[in-house]
TrEMBL record:
SUPFAM superfamilies, per the entry: MetI-like
Highest taxon in the source lineage: Bacteria
Annotated family: Belongs to the binding-protein-dependent transport system permease family.
Organism of origin: Fusibacter bizertensis
Assigned keywords, A-Z: Cell membrane, Membrane, Transmembrane, Transmembrane helix, Transport
Membrane topology annotation: Multi-pass membrane protein
Main localization category: membrane
Cellular compartment(s): Cell membrane
Residue ranges occupied by any ABC transmembrane type-1 domain in the UniProt entry: 9-200
Chain ranges passing through the membrane: 12-38, 58-79, 86-104, 142-168
InterPro entries linked: AA_ABC_Transporter_Permease, MetI-like, MetI-like_sf
Protein name: Methionine ABC transporter permease
Length: 216
């Protein structure tokens, strides 16, 4: 049973790592575009901003378990199957991108307008403002936001076990629930709690480290 717990934990870590990578890859640009196209920002475009905002809100309104079932055809198109860890990654990414985009949006809005105005006055281009002002200034909040996203993905990955997604959730359901093994259920809960605590502590440490470095 220890081997099964280790295997399930590794599957969960694999799903979350890959899903987080794709989420940041697509969610960071999406959240950035939401900010820079908003009213009064460096690339104001109300039509694009409202359209993207509507799409993000619509995607976030679906419960993960429903989303996972709804996009099964898309999942099969991408990975060739709707069962297993690779298949679970697709709905994880689809669910996490709009969530992370909103976190990015909130983090970038925290950057003081005066900093952006100063960069514009010095002749910085829109890309330079994004890369050298917005992202660096919002970095501590972005790190904390990424931490929250990863923790959510761990929760989503556990739910993916309900439909054969593999990982800790799958183990808890197949052995802990269906076979009435409360010891296995308890062990999976402990593993999830430990993972969340480690991730949150690491995220807090990184964010605080950057803030302390800036104050020097």
């Amino acid at each position: 049973m220890n081997q099964m717990l280790i295997k399930a934990t590794l599957e969960t870590l694999y799903m979350v790592f890959i899903a987080t990578s794709f989420t940041v890859l697509f969610g960071l640009p999406l959240g950035t575009v939401l900010v820079i196209t908003s009213k009064g920002h460096i690339l104001e475009n109300q039509a694009l901003h409202k359209t993207l905002s509507y799409v993000v809100n619509m995607a976030r309104s679906l419960p993960f378990i429903i989303l996972m079932i709804f996009i099964i055809p898309f999942t099969r198109l991408i990975v060739g199957t709707s069962i297993g860890t690779n298949a679970a990654i697709v709905p994880l990414v689809v669910a996490a991108i709009p969530f992370f985009a909103r976190i990015v949006e909130s983090a970038l809005y925290e950057v003081e307008g005066g900093v952006v105005e100063a960069a514009i006055a010095m002749g910085a281009s829109e890309w330079e403002i994004i890369r050298q002002v917005l992202i660096p200034e919002a970095l501590p909040s972005l790190i904390l936001g990424t931490t929250i996203t990863i923790i959510n993905l761990i929760g989503y990955s556990a739910m993916a076990g309900a439909v054969g997604g593999g990982g800790i959730g799958d183990l808890a359901i197949r052995y802990g629930y269906h076979r009435f093994r409360l010891d296995i259920m308890a062990e999976t809960i402990v593993i999830l709690i430990v993972l969340v605590q480690l991730l949150q502590s690491t995220g807090n440490l990184l964010a605080n480290s950057i803030l302390k470095h800036r104050k020097r």
